[in-house]
Amino acid sequence: MSLSCDDIRAAADRISPWVHRTPVLTARSLDDRCGGSIFLKCENLQRVGAFKFRGAMNAVLQLTDAERAAGVVTHSSGNHAQALALAGKLAGVPVCVVMPRTAPAIKRAATEGYGAQVVSCEPTLADREATVARLIAERGFALVHPYDDWRVIAGQGTAAIELLEQAGPLDLVVTPCGGGGLLSGTAIAVKGISPTTRVIGSEPERADDARRSLELGYIVPSEDPRTVADGLRTSLGERDFSVIRRHVDAIVTATETDILDAMRFVWERFKIVIEPSSAVPVAAILNGRIDVTGKRVGVIISGGNVDLDPLFQFLAAKSL
After folding, report:
1. Same domain, yes or no: 200 and 212
2. What is the pLDDT of residues 289-298, one digit of tens each?
3. Is the pTM of this model over 0.90?
4. Largest CA distance in the chain
5. DSSP letter string over 172-238?
6. Can you name the residues that pair with 199 across neighbouring β-strands?
7. Are 115 and 43 in a shared domain?
């Protein structure tokens, strides 16, 4: 199976009663600093605080009656976990999530809050997949993979369709890249609507497996790299990589300092909360890895789920 822009349009129609049409924001301070016109598609304001709800809802709405009755399982470090948990709750489908023990506490709590069962595993792709396989064998769950699933990829691509409708013609569209669901869905949508628009992925310099994979022509596994962008630590999916090789023009990187600086810039200038993974494409623009001079550029802000406890604990201690 493959995916077309028409499939993504169909997904947009399918999930429209359930998802938010998130806003696109601009700021003169960002445009002045980078020399282009930048449009941020704010999926941090999506349900569950991330674009992942689009793909999860699209997948759940296409389950067979037997799959709905058995329930679904996935593995996720956080945002897909919350997304599938909410999608399952809305559709009346049981959800089980395999989550690395290193996942942020706020994301585990939110997943459980939506009614999903959480099963812990070690923070490696091999252990995630082995735990999921065991649960499928024991309990008959249907798998909704966080990114290597055409239904999920189609759902993620709907954010790009909205972005082009809201911002108008764009020279570039930039997204973060972890497993590749958002980047591949975006690439299919953008190239289907505007073939001359370049699509660029971005990832942490410490987790640059997608960049290396694109250069080498085969998937380079990600082995739990140390980066503040916790949502971008996963390896590329086979389906995602097949799309990325065909439709993505480049993948660039940002340092940990770049990412935190960009995150702070967006918090201060746009007055919105974004998570580190969302800051990576902004960082790649601010650090000059992507030349946006004189260009109209869309950036998909992937999520806004940040563990704020340490910040508020620090502020509380400082006030005493």
Report:
1. yes
2. 999 999 999 9
3. yes
4. 60
5. EEEEE-SSSHHHHHHHHHHHHH-TTSEEEEEEEGGG-HHHHHHHHTSPPPP-----S-GGG-SPPPH
6. 173
7. no
